[in-house]
Amino acid sequence: MTALFALATSLLWGLADFGGGLLTRRTPALTVVVVSQTGAAAVLAVIVTVTGAWSEAGGQLWFAVAAGVVGPVAMLSFYKALALGPMGVVSPLGSLGVAVPVSVGLIVGERPGLLQFAGVAVAVVGIVLAGGPQLRGAPVQRRAVLLTLVAAFGFGAVMSLIAEASTTVTGLFLALFVQRITNIAVGGSALYVSVRRGARALPEEGGAAAVRAALPALLFVGLADVAANGTYSIAAQHGPVTVAAVLASLYPVVTALAARGFLGERLRGVQAAGAGLALVGTVLLATG
């Protein structure tokens, strides 16, 4: 079950990153974060009400609040990096955040078997290579790398926090809702300050009409991100966090394949090799 839900997480995050990266090339990143998370929060509000998840409220929700504070910072940094550099470079570096939950798992006493340790090493190398790392270049590229590393740490922290925010399915719905409300509060405040300082909240071309036209895509990005957090939490609760975190971090492969399929970005030799290694690592983790 851990492998299945973790792989579902990588698929959802990969598609969400692809969609978010495309949207931020036309719309300010803060607007993408706030609007996408607002749509997801509206859907979660209905689910929480229907399932009666309010009864699961407790002290563990502070983990969801913390995840909601860190999340917008990570998403904003990541979306800005995606807008500055090729998705195939930014996405695999963002997955280095896997080091945070893996470290937490080791600290709390998890000891994967020999095959799983090998799978972790192979998969992490494959994840990085899947983007065909290009760390040399213009200042803009270096800025993209820095933003991506900030996002990576944030993503890893969110993975660890959301896994601790609930122990039941209904509790998970409530935790994800609280996380999204916090996301909106933090991201909305940042957007307000940004606009007050003269930045744009709407696309230069099309304005509000362009945002309305992009609402289906924005809703998809928000819901995919929510679903990924949910499937990761389930994966982490039903198996070793070290395994769940690495498998969930295979999303750069999904992003690279989506970029190839929809944008025609060609996979370089190192990217293809990285994707192959990631697959080998996945098999080792799932069978170890």
For the report, how would you describe the main beta sheet? none
Distance between the termini: 14 Å
Shape: globular
Number of helices: 13
- Count of separate structural domains: 1
Helices and strands, in order, run as: HHHHHHHHHHHHH
Question: Kindly state the mean pLDDT as a whole number?
Answer: 82
Question: Rg to the nearest angstrom?
Answer: 18 Å
- Tell me the structural class: mainly alpha
Share in helix: over 70%
Percentage of residues in strands: under 5%
Low-confidence stretches: 135-140
How many E strands?
Answer: 0
Walkthrough of the structure:
Keywords: Membrane, Transmembrane, Transmembrane helix. The chain is mostly helical. It has one domain (2-287). It contains 13 helices and no strands. The chain has helices at 2-23, 29-51, 61-84, 87-94, 99-107, 114-129, 139-163, 169-196, 207-213, 215-237, 241-248, 251-263, 269-287. Helix 2 packs across helix 10. The protein is globular. The relative contact order is 0.25.
Q: Which structural traits does this protein have?
A:
288 residues, mainly alpha, 13 helices, globular, EmrE-like
Task: Annotate the secondary structure layout.
Blueprint: H1 2-23, H2 29-51, H3 61-84, H4 87-94, H5 99-107, H6 114-129, H7 139-163, H8 169-196, H9 207-213, H10 215-237, H11 241-248, H12 251-263, H13 269-287
Helix pairs in contact: 1-3, 1-10, 1-11, 1-12, 2-8, 2-10, 3-4, 3-7, 3-8, 4-7, 4-12, 5-7, 5-11, 6-11, 6-13, 8-10, 10-11
Transmembrane segments: 32-54, 61-79, 113-132, 144-163, 169-193, 214-235, 241-263
Organism: Streptomyces brevispora
Family: Belongs to the EamA transporter family.
